[in-house]
Every structure is written in structure tokens, then in C-alpha cells.
Amino acid sequence: MADEQDASNSTSPTIYDVARACGVAASTVSRTFSRPGRVNVETADRIRRVAAEMGYRTNTVARALPTSQTALLAMVVPTVPDRFFIEVIRGAKAAAIAAGYTLVVADAGLSADAERAAVNRLIPVVDGVILAGSLLPDSSIRVAAKQRPTVVLNRAMTDVASVLTDSADGMRQAVEHLTALDHRELTYLAGPEASWSDGMRWRSFKVETQRLGLRARRIGPIAPTQAAGMAAASTFAEQMTSGVIAFNDFIAVGFVSGLSRLGVRVPDDVSVIGFDNTAAGFSNLPLTSIAAPLPHLGGQAVRTLMRQIAAARPGRPDAPGAVRPTRLPAQLVVRSSTAPRARRDSNAPGSGERAA
Amino acid sequence: MADEQDASNSTSPTIYDVARACGVAASTVSRTFSRPGRVNVETADRIRRVAAEMGYRTNTVARALPTSQTALLAMVVPTVPDRFFIEVIRGAKAAAIAAGYTLVVADAGLSADAERAAVNRLIPVVDGVILAGSLLPDSSIRVAAKQRPTVVLNRAMTDVASVLTDSADGMRQAVEHLTALDHRELTYLAGPEASWSDGMRWRSFKVETQRLGLRARRIGPIAPTQAAGMAAASTFAEQMTSGVIAFNDFIAVGFVSGLSRLGVRVPDDVSVIGFDNTAAGFSNLPLTSIAAPLPHLGGQAVRTLMRQIAAARPGRPDAPGAVRPTRLPAQLVVRSSTAPRARRDSNAPGSGERAA
DNA sequence: CACGGGCCGACAATCGGTTGCCAAAACTAT
DNA sequence: ATAGTTTTGGCAACCGATTGTCGGCCCGTG
């Protein structure tokens, strides 16, 4: 008894301690926890009871050595998460817990190098990695994917699993919405050049405006911040269009304040649509935005990852060749930053060649 | 040669593979990396070169088993991080990397139970834990601290290391600022009841107002969101004071919009001060706020943790008895949400018993 | 030339589980 | 009662590092 007190006092008990206390072999204790049906119910009950009494908790790092499974999932996000990723993380976390995994979040710093460092640090310790808004080139991502199951978010890759919002369809909805409001000339406020999403959105913007026979302009690249959006307003003022679609809500919100500073009113003079629906209740003007199903995005990423982890178990060490991206629907949320085009078409400076 | 190809192909090389390739014992390879001077320079160089060629990377979980050191630090934050924690995390991350550690962030869900679960999952895998804005009762924190070095943020504890902003002094600066502007009646917009910080701030508020002979009111508890802050404006309107200090900037920003909706102008009619300085450029009105040195807070937490980890190494398993909280200075940042008290004192409904 | 001391590398135990294989025990069927 | 099958628990070999201990080698000095 004194002996057991001492043991429990110094370090936490191991399966060997439990085994000795129960008069069974350590392997039996191990199986009691890891292989449910394998041990006689009575024996298992007794072991469980004693283990609980002794305060036994299985040492996850010891377990990870032979099985190379840590029940940890890593999600790497650019620098520190903004509203967008917050929602994604929420969904991912729920899905991870549901699957018996723990999700840890690491921020990637601001450079590709810092991100690579973060990934390298984490990869040996986790069972899978979700790369969200990665700054890494495709080749680096492939390297990571070769070592651990990997899923990329909002970025299409042919040889690494990916989950993304159908922003092309979101863009279609946005452009059609503006068209229905009689806007015939649209400007796209572009995001950072390095952003994969931005390229995607701009491409869709061109496709849709062309399809509907609209005039399309583009301003940018613009950093994804309110300040940069605000600054972009003056560039825009030199040659205005009645409809504007921004790379994301941060830019859109800043842009709207920039316009109001210039005396241009939203939505009276200009209709503005953002992306990602992250600005709800952010500024005074409720912003029309293309909403991505953020938590679903995260959840889906985790589920895709889990499938890969399960598949990697038996023989195949990696790359199942080509994989098709999972595409989740976007939805336009109409608020009060969009309105029918005003009839009068002078008033604003440089309103230029409007088609009457 | 074909043999080595196969080996490197299937799984990543181990020290044994490197040792065989070099014709030395595995222990020598191990020491080459962990105990610099212990191995002959030539031998070490050769081993390092071969290891690099083979792409050897030390398996951190295997290393963690005998040493029980994972070089991982966990920071647990309530639900998903807002602007406040984003800055704290940034500072903590930098400090962790500087010390050769990796910081992982886990969100605690919304309940104490979820937080406990998160902590329990993480504790066996990390070398130390930082609890930020924890919802846990002191007793649970003590339990965690008994298992791993632990530091709590913005919460004073006598037997667990803590790092916190000197919000009492921040409150003093805020109240003195308002006094200097001739405000004689102040309202405190209280945050969530469970919040340790809120209790602290309210207490300081009372102390300071009393010291300066001001009238003090309190409204709340209010959820730390803009929406809740906005809603609080109508309660406030029933009995206004010319000066207001809010639990944090979210509440303050919402409160200001709520006031403007009611036709009360800031800072003309009411001066408002927030806490944490997280609303920079958030709304149209630059908010006067009590700024905490957020990144320093995170960095200091990590450094405190590292000291504990180092101390825990030799003999002492835990609790060094009583520890004094580390207090970091707060600073009032004056912007345009505060102004001298207006002379006229009717106009607003229920402006009540003003003294003069 | 012999002896003491440093330096260096190897052996083997250990961290705490997991799991393939085997044998004893219990049960079923003939 | 015997042979055949299924449970069930134990033995021991891993997983990939770390580290205490020991013996061999080389050097210097008496």
C-alpha cells in the first residue's frame, strides 16, 4: 500500500502498474483499452475499475510511437486568423472532435518560409494537415502531402485533396444580381496577387460579365484590409462604374467608407458587393456579400482528411493519383449595399462613358 | 545500394539506418545531434553529411518518449480568437520560436467543460500550457498546473504563475482622463459575469471614482459583442452620465452606434472609453481606449513558462509554492471618442440629477 | 617500457505502449 | 469421452530515440 502510494505520487501510473495491481499482463491492460472485444468482459471491467482508481491515463506519446498515430490534426492558417478562418476553424474543430481527434491551429507567419517552417515542425507530430490560405507554392505542398495526409482549403490542386467554395457560382450570382438591378458596367477590386482565390474570382468575373455583355474593369492588386480598400476608392473615383464587386468584405467595407469620404453614396450612386460575408455588423452599412459556408468548409476539410488517414492505413503510403476538389456552394446574401442603378447619370466626377 | 534505395523509399530513415551507413553505432549518431562536443569532430561531420544525404530527420515523438519533452507549447484561448488574442498569440509565437519551441493554439469551445476537455487532450502532448481567458475555476487550473508547467493570462492566481495587464492602473488613467475633461458622473458597462477581468475592472472603477469623488454607475452584465453593446445604449439612455467606460472595445463600439441611433452624439454629448485597444479603425469613430501591450503579454507568458519548464527539470516536480503575478503596464490611448463635458445639460432624456 | 588519464565509440537498458504468435482453458459437437 | 474450435491471457519483439556505463585506443610522462 505504501508502495502504491509512492508510485502514484512520483509519476503517473503505466499499464504495467495497472497490470500488477490486477494480477494480469500488461498486454491485457493494453487490449482492454485499445481492442474492446478482445478481453473477457469481467476482466476488462475489473481492469477499467482499477485503472480509474489509480488515475491511469494512457500516455499518448508512447502510444504514438508504435502506431505512429497521435490523434492530432493541424490546421495551418496564414498569420493569425481573421473572421474568415475563425468560422472555418469552428467547423473543423467540431468535425475533428466528432472523429476523436484534436485539432491544433498554427499560424504560418507572414511568409512562405515561415509557413514551411511551421508545417515542418508540425508534420512529424500530427496525423494530418489542413493548409488554409497557404502561401506555399504547389511544389512545397506536394512535398508535405507526401509525408502526411494533407488537404488544402480554397485552392484547387489536382494531386492533393482540396476543399473549396464554388466562388465561380458565387460570382455568377453576384453579377446576375447587379445585372437585374440594371448595372451595365462593373469593377472588380482585386485582392493580393499571390492569392489563388483572387485569380479564381477575377477569372469568373470576366467570364460572367462577358456572358451577360457587361463592361468589366479591374482595380488592384489591393491588400485585403479596410485601409487599402479605402485608398482604392480614389483610384476608382477617376473612372467609376455603378457596380462594384470586391475581392473580400474587408476591402469592400474600406472602399465604402472611402467613397463616402469622397461624397459618393452607397448604394444610391454605387452598388457594392463583397466576398466571404465576414463583415456582418461591421460597419454601419449592411454589406451585400457572397457567403461561403465557412464552418462546413472546415468540417468538410476534416472529413476529407479523415478519409485519407483511413485509406493510408493499410498498404498505400500516399498519393492516390488525381483527386477531384470538393466544391461547396456559395450563396449571395443581399443586404443594403446594392440597389437599382440611379437614372440620373452625371453628378459624380469622372463618371465617364456611361452607356445612357 | 538497391537495399538502401528500398529502405529510404518505404519509411523515413532512423538513426539506425544512418549508423549502418556510416559504420558506427546508433548511439553515436544520437549523440552527434544531441551532445555536440561528445563525438569526434570528423566522425560527427561524416555522420551529419550522410544523415543529410539520406534525408534523416529526428523523430520527435520517439525523442519525446524517454525525455518526455516534445518542444510543443499549447495556448488555450476561449472559443476562437478575436483581435485581442490574435495579438497575444503573435507575441507568444515569436517568443516560443525564439526558444526553439512550437506554439499550438487550441480553442476551448464555449464552456468550461469543453475547455477542460481541450486541456486534457493537449496536456499529455505538450511541455507547457498557457491558459488565456480561461473559463475554468481555479481548482481545475490547479489540477492542470500539477501535471504540466502552466501560466494563466489576465487572471491572478497565487499558486499558479500568471501574467496580466495592470488594468487597475489603466482604469486609473481612464478615470483621471475623464475627470480632467470635467466629467463628474461615470458609467461602467460591465462585461460577462464569468470574466475575471471584468470583476477586476469594475473594482478598480469603483476605487478610482471614489478616490476622485465622482458618481459611479454600472450597467450589465453585457456580452462582449457589438450587438450587446448597442442594446445597452437604450438602458443607458434612461439614466445617462457624461462619461462611460466599457469593459472592452467591442461593447464600446456597439454602444456608440447604439447611442447615435438614439440621437446621442459621441463625444459631444457623451465621452466613451473602451478597453484593450482592439477597435483601431473598426468603426468610423476612433475610440479612446486603454491599451494592453498584447504581444508583450504573450511573449512574457511564454518566457515565464520556459522558466518553469527549466525549473521543473532537475528535482522539483511542480508547485514552487506561492508565485507573484507578472504585471505589465497598460496605457491610455486618447482618440476622438472623449471630449470635455458640454456646458448645456438638458437636451438628453433622463439626464437626471446632474450636480451643477 | 610501463602506467595513468582522456577521449571516443559501442552495448544495452529504458521510456510506455502495441501486437503477432502461442498455449492453456473453456466450450461445442460427435 | 474425445476431438475440434473458439476464447482468453501471456510472452516477447518491436516503435525510435536517449543515456549510463564500460572497454579500447592513443597520448603523455616517469
TrEMBL record, chains A, B:
PROSITE patterns: HTH_LACI_2 (PS50932). Keywords: DNA-binding, Transcription, Transcription regulation. GO terms for molecular function: DNA binding. Residues 13-67 form the HTH lacI-type domain. SMART domains: HTH_LACI. Residues 313-356 are annotated as: Disordered. The keyword Protein transport does not apply. The keyword Transcription regulation applies. Pfam families: LacI, Peripla_BP_3. SUPFAM superfamilies: lambda repressor-like DNA-binding domains, Periplasmic binding protein-like I. Gene3D superfamilies: 3.40.50.2300, lambda repressor-like DNA-binding domains. Residues 313-325 have a biased composition (Low complexity). InterPro entries: HTH_LacI (IPR000843), LacI/GalR-like_sensor (IPR046335), Lambda_DNA-bd_dom_sf (IPR010982), Peripla_BP_I (IPR028082). PANTHER family: LACI-RELATED TRANSCRIPTIONAL REPRESSOR (PTHR30146), TRANSCRIPTIONAL REGULATORY PROTEIN (PTHR30146:SF138). This is LacI family DNA-binding transcriptional regulator. It comes from Agromyces humatus. The lineage of its organism: Bacteria, Bacillati, Actinomycetota, Actinomycetes, Micrococcales.
